[in-house]
Structures are given as C-alpha cells and as structure tokens.
From TrEMBL:
GO terms for cellular component: plasma membrane. Residues 19-385 form the ABC-2 type transporter transmembrane domain. It comes from the Bacteria. This is ABC transporter permease. Its main location: membrane. It comes from Candidatus Kutchimonas denitrificans. Keywords: Cell membrane, Membrane, Transmembrane, Transmembrane helix.
C-alpha cells in the first residue's frame, strides 16, 4: 500500500507542479467564460446598431404599412429609400450592399398579397431575416384586412401569435425553461468528454515515455505492473479532479457575477439553471467512472506502443469510442425517455455523456442511477483486468508492435 501511495503521489505532484497544469487550469475557464460572454456582448452591440435596409415594393401597397411596424419605428431597421429610376433598382441595391452602403434590401413582388413571397438580400447572414419576416407579415396582414373592408387593428389582433412558454416539472415546483437544460447538458457532457480524453491520453503518453527512457524497468523492480497501472490511473485522475474542482469554482464565481451584471440580467436563460448539487455529484461520479474506463484503455494502448507515432495510431479506436456519444447526444436530447435513449445511456462507454444529459432533462428514474453505476464499475473491473495483463507484458516489450492474436495471448496467459 505504501508503494502504491508513493506512485499516486509521484504522478500527482509531478503534474500539479508543472507549468502545463497551471496554464491549462487558468486558461480553460477563461476561454470557456469568454465563449459564453462574447456572443452575449456581440449580440447586445448588434441589437443596438440599426441595420440599413432598402425596400423594393412592386405592389405599391406594403411599404407604408411596413414602415409603421415596430421593427422600423422602434429603430431595429433604418429605412433607406431605393434609387428612383425607370429600370429595376435591384442591381443598384446589390452594388450598394456589396460596397457596404446598405446592410440589405427587401424585395416585395407584385403578387406578394397573393401567393407571392418576399425576399431579403444581404451579405451579413440571415439572423436579421427573422425580425423582417415578422414585420413584413404584419404589414401584409394589415393591407389584406383593408382590402376586405376589415379594421386593420382588429385583424392584427386576431392574427397575433400566442407565445408558448415551457416549464420543467421539478420536485420543488416549476422552473421556466428557455433551452437551459439542453445547453447545460451539452456543456457538462463536453466537459466530461474533453477532460476524460485529456487525462486518458496523458496516461498513454506517460506509459510511452517511461518505456522510451527505460525508467519503467527500474520501477517494476520494486512494484508489480498492476500497482504501477493503478498508481498512474489514481494519480492522473486526482489531477483531473483537482482541475475540475478549480474550474467549477471559477465558473460558479462567473455565474454569480453574470447574474448581477446588467448585460446578463435581462437574459432569462441565466435564471433557473438546471444544475443543482445533485447534478454536480452525478457529474463527478460519471467523470470518475468514465475516466477509469477510458484511462485503462489508453494505458493499455500506451503499453503496447513503442513510440509516440505508434501511440497516436493506437489511440484512434479509443478516441472514436469516446466521440460516439457526442455525436449521439442529439438523439437523447430530442427524446430522453425513449427506449433508444435509455439503451444508449446505459452503454458504459457512452454513459458519462448521455446519462448525464438524460438526468439534466429529468428523464432518469431513481432506480437507474445505481444500475448504471453498477454497470460502470463492472466495466472498470473488466477493463482493468484486460488492461492489467496487457500492461504487464507490454511495458517490457520493445521492437515490433504485437498483433491482435498476440494481444489475445497476453490477455489469456498474462
């Protein structure tokens, strides 16, 4: 036990004291917070800037009503008259858009009141089109109402859309949901995926480095191979938990600040975040079990490889397995209670990402948690048993990379 603890302490202290650990610990939350804050700041600045828009109204009836809509009267769009000429002004407007004199122009065909549709031409993406679409729809409805002899205001009131608000059902009552659950599931799932891959590949590189420097022969003279593998796994895992703990504290400080900052105060999505103490405990549990599963697989790949180049090739299958749940998470988010989502989240290699997503969405039944962790622990035992046998022989093997039949023999007779 003393030798095992010495290995764990060696792996932990060596990595925590490194400049790499300090820089990644500090930079990762800064980049994450920047990625969260930058879109909000840019969206706020974009919303404050009025977009310059011209309108070509071939019907001759929509433009006056369009300029009365909130989109134009409220300052979101600034109307720039189209050039007056006997020819089609759209070519001149296209040149103005290209030259940056206009942000875009709207084309309303003569039959827009019938079956025709409107067009918006721009160089800056399609995001403003949503606001224009609502304004054009309101203007067309008012003109149609006037044509039918109806009061335009009453017609607009009849056709006013009803906003659907979504709430999560929780044990404490209800909570407003504006997509926070999906965003939280994505972010926490990506954190688990990133950290597990980061520290799993660290296990791989450590095994390759020790084989290359021959230090493993000295270490194995005093400890058993399984102790070396377990010591490395626990030491590197403790580094991961330390880094995640620091990240969570920094993110928590940011969320407290964001809740009080004016730029974020008006964003309802910042309220009622579906992340409580139970979610964080489950998150840590899934990270630890997921790390042990993939850490053992990466360690085995590192024991087989004789060089960094071979290691980069051998880690590809393990990395692909880790990527699969990120690709499948959309299926779980769309229907977290479906049979497919349940089965996928129970597969031990996918559990850390997909089961957490189902839990955040409130689709996990209480009895599933111990069952899933039992499956995770069973998988850890299998991976450790197989990986330990490969690790035992692979660390001392150099030269030709073993074939698949040779690996099977290692596992059977290791």
């Amino acid at each position: 036990m003393d030798k095992l603890l010495a290995l764990v302490r060696r792996e932990y202290v060596a990595r925590v004291r490194s400049k790499w650990f300090i820089w990644t610990t500090l930079l990762a939350p800064v980049l994450l917070i920047g990625a969260m804050a930058l879109p909000v700041i840019l969206a706020t600045q974009q919303a404050e800037r009025a977009l310059r828009v011209s309108v070509v109204d071939e019907s001759g009836r929509i433009l006056p009503e369009l300029l009365e809509t909130d989109a134009f009267s409220g300052g979101r769009f600034r109307f720039i008259p189209a050039p007056k000429s006997g020819t089609d002004p759209r070519e001149e407007l296209r040149r103005r858009v290209i030259d940056g004199l206009l942000d875009g122009y709207v084309y309303l065909p003569a039959d827009v009141l019938g079956s025709g549709g409107a067009e918006y031409w721009t160089r800056e993406g399609i995001s403003p089109a949503e606001g224009l679409s609502g304004a054009i729809t309101a203007a067309v409805q008012r003109v149609r109402a006037s044509s039918l002899g109806l009061d335009p205001g009453a017609a607009q009131e009849l056709t006013r859309q009803t906003r659907l608000r979504t709430y999560r059902v929780t044990a404490e009552g209800k909570a407003r949901d504006q997509g926070q659950t999906v965003v939280a599931a994505h972010i926490l799932g990506l954190i688990i995926y990133t950290v597990v891959l980061l520290y799993g590949s660290m296990m791989l590189r450590a095994a390759v480095a020790e084989k290359a420097t021959k230090t493993v022969e000295i270490i194995l003279s005093s400890v058993r191979p399984w102790q070396l593998m377990l010591g490395k796994t626990l030491g590197v895992g403790a580094v991961g938990l330390t880094q995640i703990g620091i990240w969570l504290m920094l993110v928590a400080v940011f969320l407290v600040y964001a809740g009080a900052a004016q730029a974020f105060a008006d964003i309802e999505a910042m309220r009622d975040l579906p992340i409580g103490l139970d979610t964080l405990i489950l998150f840590l549990g899934l990270f630890v079990t997921g790390y042990f599963v993939f850490g053992g697989m990466y360690a085995s790949a590192g024991a087989i490889a004789s060089s960094e180049q071979e290691a980069s090739q051998l880690q590809i299958p393990v990395t692909i397995i880790a990527i699969i749940p990120i690709l499948l998470i959309i299926l779980v988010l769309d229907a977290p209670s479906s049979t497919l989502a349940i089965v996928l989240s129970w597969i031990p290699f996918f559990t850390p990402v997909l089961f957490l997503a189902r839990y955040i969405l409130g689709a996990v039944r209480g009895w599933e948690i111990p069952v899933v962790f039992a499956l995770q622990l069973f998988t850890i035992v299998i991976v450790a048993w197989v990986g330990g046998r490969i690790y035992r022989l692979g660390l001392l093997m150099t030269g030709k990379r073993p074939t698949l039949p040779e690996l099977i023999r290692w596992v059977r007779h290791g």
